[in-house]
Amino acid sequence: MAEALWHSMRRSLGRLLQVEDSEWGRFLIAFLYFFMLLGSYFMIRPLRNTVASQFSEQLHWLYTATFLSMLLLVPVFGWLVARFRRRALVPLIYGVFLLQLLAFALAFRGNTAPVPVEVTFYVWVSVFNLFVVSIFWSFMADIFRPQQAQRLFGSIMAGGSLGAMLGPLLTAGLIDAVGASGIMVLAAAGLLLAMLLAWRLGQKVQSEPQAVQDRAIGGSILAGARTVFQSPYLLLICAMMLAHNMTSTFLYNGLAVLIDQQGLDFAQRTTLYSYLDLIVQICAFTLQFLLTSRLLACLGMPRTALLPPLLLAAGVSVLGSAFGLVLFAAVQVLQRALNYGLLGPVKEMLFTVLNREQKYKSKNFIDTVVYRGSDTAASWLFRGYLGLGLSLQQAVWCYLPVMGLWALAAWRLGRRFQSLSTQSGDSEKVG
Question: Tell me, which fold does domain 24-424 have in CATH?
Answer without folding.
Answer: Growth Hormone; Chain: A; (1.20.1250)
